[in-house]
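Async update (no meeting this week)

Hi team, since we skipped the sync, here's where things stand on the single-chain job. The sequence we agreed to prioritize is pasted below, unchanged from the tracker. I ran it this morning and attached the output directly underneath so nobody has to dig for it. Comments welcome in thread, and please keep replies under the output.
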Amino acid sequence: QVQLTESGGGLVQAGGSLRLACAASGRTDTVHTMGWFRQAPGKERELVAAIRWSGSATDYGESVKGRFTISRDNAKNTVYLQMTSLKPEDTAVYYCHTAAGSSGFDYWGQGTQVTVSS
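Output:
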């Protein structure tokens, strides 16, 4: 099993920046990808960004391309999401996600609230 612990959410004004962090523990040797999803009230959960645990492949949701950057520190088993030029529509609960194990099982963090005021 893999456990995910998120940090870094909060309240920020539009145009500001925040950095989220997600630390993985447990069977981190089985991690394939790590990333972030978000869910706003009344909306479906959507991909924000993801990164392969080996290599450099990344994937971003269309609405955050050019504003958000995902990175990782393998030594710390931690993935980061640098968010810049934040907009009110970025307001959501952000969930850390990993796919791990031979079957790519999904693990989720508890979620961290990001609120962008206009």
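Quick observations from my side:
The longest strand covers residues 18-26.
The mean pLDDT is 95.
Reply here if anything looks off.
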